[in-house]
Amino acid sequence: MSQHVQPETRSWSKRARGLLQFSALVFNPNRGRADLLYELASTDSYMTERTLYRNVGYWKDSPTTLDDACEALAKFAGEQLELGPNDRLLDVGFGYGDQDMDWMEKFGPREIVGINITRSQLEHATERVASRGMSDRISYQLAPATKLPFDDGSFDKVVALECAFHFQTREDFFAEAFRVLRPGGRLVTVDIVPLPYQNLGFFKRWMSSVGLYMWKTCKENVYGRDVYQDKLRSVGFDARVDSIRDQTLAPFARYTLDELQKPERLAKMNSAVAFMIATPAEIILDNPYGLMQLDYVLAVADKPK
Ligand SMILES: C[S@@+](CC[C@H](N)C(=O)[O-])C[C@H]1O[C@@H](n2cnc3c(N)ncnc32)[C@H](O)[C@@H]1O
Known about the structure:
By secondary structure, the protein is α/β, with parallel strands linked by helices. The protein has a single domain, classed as Vaccinia Virus protein VP39 (Rossmann fold). About 40% of the residues lie in helices and about 15% in strands. A 7-stranded mixed beta sheet has the order 3-2-1-4-5-7-6, sandwiched between helices. α1 (about 10-25) runs antiparallel to α2 (about 35-40) and α3 crosses α4 (about 100-105). The longest helix is centred in the first third of the chain and has 16 residues, at about 10-25. The chain is globular, with a radius of gyration of 19 Å. It starts with 11 loop residues before the first helix and ends with a strand. About 45% of the residues are buried. The chain binds S-adenosylmethionine (SAM). S-adenosylmethionine binds near residues 35, 94 and 167.
């Protein structure tokens, strides 16, 4: 960046609001309050520019920006769902709605209904969908993943894009997804779990648990992909869970560390959010402190006919 160009800086009011939101996140011990995290990582505090996606992206075809990678992750999930024109889809944890508008354009499902617990995301997503003229086919409401306000068998597909680690508990969500799916319906999640077979000492476990707390990860959800698959099967799904870490978390971590070197990026972001993204990125790539290592999984789960 040229010496003469000053990076756009965050105003004092934004900084003050960020500080209040960060305090609320740190001091509210309720792990179910992931909305506190997403109010902090709000519209201007992530590394996407053209979109408002809030995931780590899918980097298999070497996209050059996080926006492109996030779109690729949504497309990948849509393909795994086998989304088609007859489907009524439930999107759990819809963020700012980007994936729903992308799915509507690419796969043309009959209807998408989204639920979320973050109020500002609901408001933004509802406006964005309206401005794209999609309100007749995409609708949103405020509700938790573990208490879905829908009838049994009322959806063909259910999806949760990088959010089930927050749900209190993920297992309760699996049972709810099973209930609202019709026989033969499909649930797809992409999700963050620990890598299997880690044997951490007390201090490293404790340090890791601080990170999980900051990311509002429900304690009961901390298990590896084999247990994930068993839990899906135990509620009745035919399920398969695979690691896609090398196409997601690892390249995202590299992108993050490069991006957070840029003064203009740092100037725009909330510094607490930057820290909360940079630390796991370092752990994913080098693990300098020997903390819990993360996996990123794709689960495809079919409700038997
Ligand atoms: C990492 S963001 C992913 C957003 C979006 N799916 C995407 O890929 O851009 C996690 C999302 O899960 C939502 N969320 C967290 N806990 C939830 C819960 N218990 N019920 C419903 N949504 C939840 C958050 O509000 C946020 O929108």
